[in-house]
Amino acid sequence: MPKVKMPRKSTLVDMTAMCDVAFLLLTFFMLATKFKPDEPVTVVTPSSINTKLLPDSDVIMLTVDKDGRVFFSMDGQPKRQKLIQDLNDQYKLGLSDKEMNNFIIGASVGTEIKNLKSYLSMKPEERKKAGLEVGIPTDSANNEVAVWIEYARSAQGGNPRLQYCVKADNQTPYPKIKDILDTFKDKKIQKLNLVTNLEAPPPGTAAALARDEK
């Protein structure tokens, strides 16, 4: 007895719901995403032929402007939260949740620890007008850069990928850079990264010859 062949029908998948979900997700991320805030200071770094790229994460950064003001920054909101919480507990700063959140989601910090509460209670444009962005002290009598480094290392929890970077302006006074380097030396931190602009190697040098051979 012959078998009855059923006619084949093409399967139709309605993608309308999937498109709606995709656009809803896109809209959500557009509205919810917060961009990285602008840094409070702009520096013009010196040039070098080093081609190593600055990592996007696991970085403790000290930025020094041409006037010698030092600013501290560190990536990772959970780590920044632990850092500011530890500083608040140790120095009895009395920071509110809003002030601590301003540090967690904010940019670099460049003020004395005693002024940190007032600093974090203001908007970035207000800090400049208030004259609080005097930089983190580096002198031997009050070396708060050492404090920030110590508490930042603790917040990192022994991260083996952690890197220390110094981003200084081309006109930064050398004594200020020496103070920072001495601070790292005192903390037994021997490996540092100096942030520079990339320039072409001088003709005839080993670096230029190696580039031409590639």
UniProtKB/TrEMBL annotation:
It holds the Pfam family ExbD. The keyword Magnesium does not apply. It is a single-pass membrane protein; Single-pass type II membrane protein. One of its GO terms (biological process) is protein transport. Keywords: Cell membrane, Membrane, Protein transport, Transmembrane, Transmembrane helix, Transport. One of its GO terms (cellular component) is plasma membrane. It is found in: Cell membrane. One of its GO terms (molecular function) is transmembrane transporter activity. PANTHER family: BIOPOLYMER TRANSPORT PROTEIN EXBD-RELATED, EXBD MEMBRANE COMPONENT OF PMF-DRIVEN MACROMOLECULE IMPORT SYSTEM. Belongs to the ExbD/TolR family. This is Outer membrane transport energization protein ExbD.
